[in-house]
Amino acid sequence: MIQVILISLLLVGCTTTDRVLDQWSLLNSEKRHFSIRKVWVRSPLSQPNEGFRKINRMTPVLAGDLLITGNAIEGIVAYERETGHKKWTFAVENGVEPSATIIKDRLFVGASDGYFYSLEASTGALQWKFATKAENLSEPLLQDGVVYFIAGNNVLFALDASSGKQVWLHSRQDTSTLSVRGGSKPSYKDGKIYAGFSDGSVMAFDASNGNVVWEALLNKNKRFRDIDASPVVDGDYLYVGGYDDKLYCLSRNNGDLLWKLDGGSYSALTVTADRLYYSTTEGEVWALQKDNGNRIWSHKVKYGIPTQAQVFKGSLVFGESQGSLVFLDLATGKHIGHFEPGRGILAKPLIVEPENRVYFISGEANVYAIEAQWNKGVRR
Which of 51, 112, 208, 276 could bridge to 288 as Cys pair (CB 3.0-4.6 Å)? Predict the structure, then answer.
């Protein structure tokens, strides 16, 4: 349209989680080094893209021994996750941008051709497709046999996951002439669906019938009012960022504003026991106290704006829209490593922590499998 401090100094006035993080940080700084190794890289394209550069922002998903990802040029491709060998492709006119959701052997994803798809994950066979009459940029949510997503025309759909039949819809009118090209993934809690729309509103719906439970208009004055970041539910709280606006903490039950913090975002934040990790459209990553939004540390990215940050073995990992895959120390926000794929990263990386693996798609649509881990001894 975006220090290592001695542990003894931190024992007073810090939480148990903070002490654990600082112990991890001190241990790693004294006895370990962080290494990053490329396992494999593949281009999903049948031929080089010589046309207009597309936005590739689908986070890969795992289906057994397969890694499935989509690109905004040709469609969806599945690889053997260990070798990178291509297993199947599903061609889609104008490609696929949003991330997908998967359960057992069913993959659900929206595409730029005006259809929402259900595929057999193991083979790529089409199960059903549903016409949305608009491009689809929102990651879907699958809950209790129903798949929820927001189409590019600001319509929230609820479809039966087994058949693709419409359960209900909610059409949200937006009179603004300016909008960011994106979409918010709905969230679910206790029978309610929470979703953000391009007019700056967040709404709660009865998941069974689509009736509106409450509505909160958040961003009223900024140039881009879009709520493209997915609302994040944590207990009785709902966290959501406006694109060029603020981070809001709302009551999940009635939408009342509890606190807000200047700084917009296009991606969901990440919640841990007592912290929030928030990527802003101003090109920063913040660690915040969960109860009040007070900042613990801030990291300014070098190139572009950051994707949603993910926790990975004492580190925080995210992509830069015009730069690298970056790893920060979780406790302090200090840079500990990066991997350069070329042409940036727009999609949240997929973390497989037990295998020390990170999978992601680059801005050029190349799919990467990398290994990242702490190693004992001094780096040579």
Answer: 276
Count of the separate structural domains present in the chain? 1
The answer to whether position 346 is within a domain reads yes
Chunked mean pLDDT (size 10), the chain, 380 residues: 29 41 48 89 82 80 96 94 96 92 96 96 97 92 97 93 97 67 86 92 96 90 76 95 86 95 89 94 94 94 94 94 95 95 92 95 94 74
CB 243 within 8 A of CB 228: yes
Q: Is the pTM of this model over 0.70?
A: yes
Handedness of CA 301, 31, 9, 23 (dihedral sign): positive
pLDDT in tens, 327-346: 999 999 999 999 999 889 99
Confirm whether 317 is domain-assigned.
yes
Residue 188: burial class (beta carbons within 10 Å; 0-12, 13-18, 19+):
middle
CATH label of the domain that carries residue 38: 2.40.10.480
Does residue 69 sit within a domain? no
Contact 190, 241 (CB under 8 A): no
Distance CA 307, CA 28 (A): 25
* Rounded-to-integer distance, Cα 98 and Cα 70, Å: 8
Q: Give the sheet arrangement for strand 66-71, strand by strand.
A: 61-63, 66-71, 75-80, 86-91
Q: Tokens 């101003």, residue?
A: 282
Would you say residue 115 lies in a domain?
A: no
Give the model's pLDDT for residue 222: 61
Distance CA 358, CA 348 (A): 10
Beta-bridge mates of residue 289 = 275
pLDDT for 229: 86
Please, which residues have CB within 8 angstroms of residue 190's CB and are 6 or more apart in sequence? none
Query: Mind giving me the DSSP string for 41-55?
Result: EE---SS---SSPP-
Helices (H), 14-100: 16-31
Mention every residue, 6+ apart, whose C-beta is less than 8 A from residue 173: 154, 199
